[in-house]
């Protein structure tokens, strides 16, 4: 069967929010390679280069079939010279020398391990790397000062490396629901992030919390957190700092939203936490497998009037969000997880559903399962 991807070549939009990107796609070998280069560019604080590689990978994810020949890429957006060189080498030789060299480089491996610690970004990891730190274990005996988040990150490093399953996410959803019900009748929780896009595993679990009566949600989070106290290994709660009128146009919406939120680490009791491997007979098993698993959980509280924007902003993927905001900008609008502002009409555009926001933006609606850009 000769059904190459060329059919969509001319119609593919340059913005991720113009394309349907399913979770399962046909070009994983190529996208894995490009995403490793993107990750490495992040580790070298080269954001422009990182985004370029991510965009290219995202375009390949949206193709209806596997790329077999370079000619099939003609007319596709976001595929620069460097990306094409990498793709060509993989198509011809099965692997890219640049990717393999990067993958095995000491800098890449150390930065991957260090940025894999909860609470550690590229800047900190790079400082530690320059000081000879290569692995989280090196931090335990070092003189390097860790903040509270990083101490938790090192302590639960091995737990948090293990992907969270959908079953674990659902179990945590039940627990959070019980906590929310106990402190505010009628409050609602919604699973967002990668799990809402249909992923079967994730690095964390993301929830939005709201209440149908605007204002009732204020101050909810500290109560929820205190109800959950015994189940939380770590938590940092921030207040809501969003003010609509003052926020615009004095300062354009930043990527970082200002909702009341909590970054936490849950102590999830087994058997809901999936066992890495079934306990073997003899000494292994019960003694070595703890009865719980540490899981990263993000809780975000939104006033109901901002719910649709928060839902759209927290469902991701990150590249999809980035391109939504860029698309809005190019249309003379400004989109955040709180609101959509029309810069020409000088007014906020209200919405009570994601569909309405896509319509305001002049975009075809893309359901969550096809936002895996
Ligand atoms: N997000 C955000 N502000 C943050 C952190 C995340 O707005 N401070 C948004 C991201 O843009 C993303 C969504 O929240 O759209 C989920 O982020 P994250 O949990 O990091 O990614 P997932 O897509 O859920 O992937 P994973 O399965 O690895 O968790
Ligand atoms: Mn390169
Ligand atoms: Mn997530
Ligand atoms: Mn998250």
Tell me what the structure shows.
The chain is an alpha+beta fold and 373 residues long. It folds into 4 domains: 6-102, Orthogonal Bundle (DNA polymerase, domain 1); 111-155, DNA polymerase, domain 1 (Orthogonal Bundle); 164-308, Beta Polymerase, domain 2 (2-Layer Sandwich), CATH 3.30.460; 314-370, Beta Polymerase, domain 3 (2-Layer Sandwich), CATH 3.30.210.10. Helices cover 42% and strands 13% of the residues. It has 17 helices and 10 strands. The chain has helices at 6-9, 28-43, 47-61, 81-93, 97-104, 106-115, 122-130, 136-140, 148-155, 157-161, 166-183, 193-196, 220-228, 244-247, 307-315, 318-330, 354-360; strands at residues 164-165, 188-191, 201-202, 205-210, 232-238, 260-269, 292-301, 333-335, 340-342, 347-348. Strands 2-4-7-6-5 form a 5-stranded mixed sheet, with helices on both faces. α11 packs across α13 (220-228). The chain is globular. Mean pLDDT is 92; it is low at 282-286. The structure holds cytidine-5'-triphosphate and manganese (II) ion (MN) (3 copies). Residues 37, 82, 98 line the site of one manganese (II) ion. This is DNA-directed DNA/RNA polymerase mu. Mg(2+) binds at residues 204, 206, 298. It comes from Scleropages formosus (Asian bonytongue).
Short description:
With 373 residues, this protein is α+β, with helices and mostly antiparallel strands. It has helices at residues 6-9, 28-43, 47-61, 81-93, 97-104, 106-115, 122-130, 136-140, 148-155, 157-161, 166-183, 193-196, 220-228, 244-247, 307-315, 318-330, 354-360; strands at residues 164-165, 188-191, 201-202, 205-210, 232-238, 260-269, 292-301, 333-335, 340-342, 347-348. Helix 6 (106-115) crosses helix 7 (122-130) and helix 11 crosses helix 13 (220-228).
